[in-house]
Amino acid sequence: MLIPVTIFICGLISPSQSLDNGLALTPPMGWLSWLRFGCTIDCEKQPTECISENLIKRTADVMASEGYLEAGYQYVTIDDCWPEKKRGPDGRLVPDNKRFPSGIKALSRYVQSKGLKFGIYEDYGNYTCAGYPGVLGHEAIDVATFAEWEVDYVKLDGCGAPDPDEGYPMFGKHLNETGRPMLYSCSWPAYQKHPHYLAIAESCNIWRNYADIANSWHSVVGIMKWFGDHQDEFAKFAGPGHFNDPDMLVIGNSGLTVDQARVQMAVWSILAAPLIMSADLSTMKPEFKEILLNRDVIAVNQDVLGKQGLRVWTSDDKKQVIWHRELEGDARALAFVNLGDKAIDNSYSHEQMLLPIQDFFVKDLYKEEQDQILSRNDDFHVRINATGVKFYKFIPKECESDDVSENEIKEISTR
Ligand SMILES: *[C@@H]1O[C@H](CO)[C@@H](O)[C@H](O)[C@H]1NC(C)=O
Ligand SMILES: *[C@@H]1O[C@H](CO)[C@@H](O)[C@H](O)[C@H]1NC(C)=O
Ligand SMILES: *[C@@H]1O[C@H](CO)[C@@H](O)[C@H](O)[C@H]1NC(C)=O
């Protein structure tokens, strides 16, 4: 009898309606070439940097062998600049024959042979953002080509798109009609002033809301601010199968310190954001790899409720920000972000943290502090590095003790 009671008090699964291709039930995790490798195409001058089958294979090898796949990073996606500038005589897209000599199908097979999934980029315009052939007027044949190449993920950009409200659902319909489940990443709202998020969530698995991320703390801060300022417009559309996308993880590149990298990982997890790395995994420094592979943080991102967290409190000087996400079992993840350049020592009330007045068991997800108990009567004390974060999971004490009794019951019944 205790078990259903526990579920009733501590868990509340909300149903959702949206695109139903069985994909992205939790935010997708993977790698995308753009932020780190952009449109580097001269493989003679930059053999390890150019967009090529070698880069994709090298990345897939590291993802499979160094723990990324095991941690959940699954998709390896080529961004812009993979095709020839001209379509083939049959109207089909052709991969650049110097950089992808084995063809895309062989490449997707290679990636899949490692247990990973393969993604590709296109654009709903006459040209991609970097000037390669876009899908406009070729939607059906391009989708058929992707299915033939056994693609698992399609990112559709919006440079030069005539009417996103028409084009994105139409392209999604083509994807569906192939019968091959392909995760559909749309750049649709990023190209609009007043996006119709309901329509977007009905067509796309993930969608880019805002400007491209860059390799800098300034860029990460700008995106966090925008997501906080506009959260009421779109947070509610996130859920299993459909998520807002604040763009790639900068972590592992030159632009972020370790503390700043922890901030991005924490806030992206609160936002139920896709965790799409874009760094050279073969030269990743261990301190960044540790952040990317942090199981407790990833568990917050992948929480089954799929509920997007919110910015719940900002200090008057705008330097301290609290982000809060509801998790399965009435638990919560809270990220205390310090945007300033001096360390902060502060205490926060339940009200500021938007926590119900009750006792919590508190775990530091970056494991610098011992587990602690926050009593319903106390404020919560936090010390945060300059441009850094403290990231905790708050578990209601009642639920924690219920879990214990549930285990005890199981033990007794199996004896
Ligand atoms: C795409 O190209 C066609 C053919 O050149 C042209 O008629 C059309 O206006 C272009 N559309 C956009 C949105 O640029
Ligand atoms: C196509 O859409 C239908 C209806 O939503 C869905 O049941 C099916 O799984 C989709 N198939 C693919 C391959 O996306
Ligand atoms: C803060 O800075 C110290 C010293 O640079 C470092 O050891 C620590 O990991 C940083 N992070 C946090 C969250 O304290």
From TrEMBL:
<dbReference type="GO" id="GO:0005737">
    <property type="term" value="C:cytoplasm"/>
</dbReference>
<dbReference type="GO" id="GO:0016139">
    <property type="term" value="P:glycoside catabolic process"/>
</dbReference>
<dbReference type="InterPro" id="IPR017853">
    <property type="entry name" value="GH"/>
</dbReference>
<keyword id="KW-0732">Signal</keyword>
<keyword id="KW-0326">Glycosidase</keyword>
<comment type="similarity">
    <text>Belongs to the glycosyl hydrolase 27 family.</text>
</comment>
<keyword id="KW-0378">Hydrolase</keyword>
<comment type="subunit">
    <text>Homodimer.</text>
</comment>
<dbReference type="GO" id="GO:0009311">
    <property type="term" value="P:oligosaccharide metabolic process"/>
</dbReference>
<protein>
    <recommendedName>
        <fullName>Alpha-galactosidase</fullName>
        <ecNumber>3.2.1.-</ecNumber>
    </recommendedName>
</protein>
<dbReference type="Pfam" id="PF16499">
    <property type="entry name" value="Melibiase_2"/>
</dbReference>
<dbReference type="GO" id="GO:0004557">
    <property type="term" value="F:alpha-galactosidase activity"/>
</dbReference>
<dbReference type="InterPro" id="IPR013785">
    <property type="entry name" value="Aldolase_TIM"/>
</dbReference>
<dbReference type="InterPro" id="IPR013780">
    <property type="entry name" value="Glyco_hydro_b"/>
</dbReference>
<feature type="signal peptide">
    <location>
        <begin position="1"/>
        <end position="18"/>
    </location>
</feature>
<keyword id="KW-1015">Disulfide bond</keyword>
<dbReference type="InterPro" id="IPR002241">
    <property type="entry name" value="Glyco_hydro_27"/>
</dbReference>
